[in-house]
Design a protein that fits this description.
Chain lengths: 113, 114
């Protein structure tokens, strides 16, 4: 089955710790996105990548980092510089064809210990 | 830049009643419009999309939406809701063109009760 797999489903971060959220897709999509979801705020774009080895900051990139070494993978690192990391993180990819239809993973819920 | 406004943060409705979830957008260029549904602790699932052509679009689970360019709206409707429709609904907009970013509204929580 084709889709987007996010892991882990739940993640806990200690003070000063970096944590990495995994996003893998087998849809052969070029563009991938990371969003942060907080209650009552909708989804906010953290980073996106339209092609391997290239990525751009979104609206709230501070305290986060990404890499895109493979087409299938777009991991997100929440660094210790992100002072309020507790949120639901969603990864998405875009179906080729120029219609901007995004497909989402099931999300990772990050909490601070 | 584009923006999306979902005026209702919560919409309570009885089962089998009709429902309308409102979405207004702002953009100076042509847009694509989307409605997504999110069940608790899950990702977003595409309900329907407007890309071009007919302004009335039909989606999954009996939902439909109408694109109104003059009123810059894209309201979501269902003639008869079911308990299983209880979820968060997000309206989103992007400019036309390849791999453009989506801008999301803040969401509307649809609560269906007996």
């Amino acid at each position: 089955d084709g889709g987007i797999t996010q892991s882990p489903k739940y993640l806990f971060r200690k003070e000063g710790q970096n944590v990495t959220l995994s996003c893998e897709q087998n849809l052969n999509h070029d563009a991938m996105y990371w969003y942060r979801q907080d209650p009552g705020q909708g989804l906010r774009l953290i980073y996106y990548s339209q092609i391997v080895n290239d990525f751009q900051k979104g609206d709230i990139a501070e305290g986060y980092s990404v890499s895109r070494e493979k087409k299938e993978s777009f991991p997100l690192t929440v660094t210790s510089a992100q002072k309020n990391p507790t949120a639901f993180y969603l990864c998405a990819s875009i179906q080729p064809g120029g219609k901007n239809i995004q497909y989402f993973g099931a999300g990772t819920r990050l909490s601070v210990l | 830049a584009q923006s999306v406004t979902q005026l209702d943060s919560q919409v309570p409705v009885f089962e089998e009643a009709p429902v309308e979830l409102r979405c207004n957008y702002s953009s100076s260029v042509s847009v694509y419009l989307f409605w997504y549904v999110q069940y608790p602790n899950q990702g977003l699932q595409l309900l329907l999309k407007y890309l071009s052509g007919s302004t009335l679009v039909k989606g999954i689970n009996g939902f439909e939406a109408e694109f109104n360019k003059s009123q810059t709206s894209f309201h979501l409707r269902k003639p008869s809701v079911h308990i299983s429709d209880t979820a968060e609904y997000f309206c989103a907009v992007s400019v036309t063109g390849t791999a453009s970013k989506l801008t999301f509204g803040t969401g509307t929580r649809l609560q269906v009760t007996l």
